[in-house]
Design a protein that fits this description.
This protein is an alpha/beta fold and about 260 residues long. The protein contains 11 helices and 8 strands. Keywords: Amino-acid biosynthesis, Cytoplasm, NADP, Oxidoreductase, Proline biosynthesis.
Length: about 260
């Protein structure tokens, strides 16, 4: 299975890194991007093939990852319609759902997704539109491939970019929380490297616990809060500071 990237920015390179870590042969992947010299360096560092343009990527690939800026989609892909006839287009372009792709590439197999950067370490979440033009066989191959990058969540079209926003933008919010908790630990004497290790492992462990048990987050919070204890005092401080409202407003802002 040959994978090609049209566009090789942060998200595309994160996906490539995740697939390589999962055992996909780097030599079976190629990419094109605006600056060829810089692309060559990035591809060679991974063992991938650098291509000069999108047509070269399409010719060399079975699955074509559409990772250019949304405003470039039609200009880049419309001329390649015939060349894409027997390929699969895997879109990671923001706001480009199945209906939009069908206008540009009618009759071509395409599926729209919104991954996040933790796919680079196999711990991503990939929002995947239920509506696609893939055959059952193609869908099985693509979902298996995406599964190597993390959790795949299939969503209705109306919810695709809501799920993509929560999964794709919130890593920045979580990173801010990690930084702030690390600062708090440093304030009280813990060296910064140790502080970040403690906080990041705590976030990882808490997430794994929720996924493994299916517990409601409120129940997990209550399990740590002893009556009159330190944790409930911290929870009240967060409530007073408007933590919940701030996070909801952050998602609202990204969706505007």
């Amino acid at each position: 299975m040959k994978i090609g990237f049209v566009g090789f920015g942060n998200m595309a390179s994160a996906m490539a890194d995740g697939w390589i870590a999962a055992g996909v042969a780097a030599s079976d992947m190629c990419a094109c991007a605006g600056r060829y010299d810089a692309l060559v360096e990035r591809c060679e560092a991974r063992g991938m093939v650098a291509c000069h343009d999108a047509a070269e990527v399409v010719a060399a690939s079975d699955i074509v990852v559409a990772a250019v800026k949304p405003y470039m989609i039609e200009k880049v892909f419309a001329p390649l319609k015939d060349a894409l006839a027997k390929k699969v287009v895997l879109s990671v372009a923001w706001t480009w759902d199945s209906a939009k792709w069908e206008q540009v590439l009618p009759g071509v197999a395409h599926i729209s997704t919104v991954p996040n950067t933790p796919v680079s370490v196999g711990e991503g979440v990939i929002a995947c539109e239920k509506a696609s033009t893939l055959s059952d066989e193609q869908s099985a191959v693509v979902l298996d491939l995406l599964g190597k990058l993390g959790a795949v969540v299939e969503l209705d079209t109306s919810l695709l970019f809501v799920g993509g926003t929560v999964g794709g933008c919130a890593p920045a919010f979580v990173a801010m929380a990690i930084e702030a908790l690390g600062d708090a630990a440093v304030k009280h004497g813990i060296p910064r490297a140790d502080a970040y290790r403690i906080v990041s492992q705590m976030v990882l462990g808490t997430a794994k616990l929720q996924l493994a048990t299916g517990q409601h987050p409120a129940a997990m919070k209550d399990a740590v809060c002893s009556p009159g204890g330190a944790t409930i005092k911290g929870v009240v401080a967060l409530e007073d500071a408007g933590m919940r409202s701030a996070l909801v407003k952050a998602i609202d802002a990204t969706l505007q």
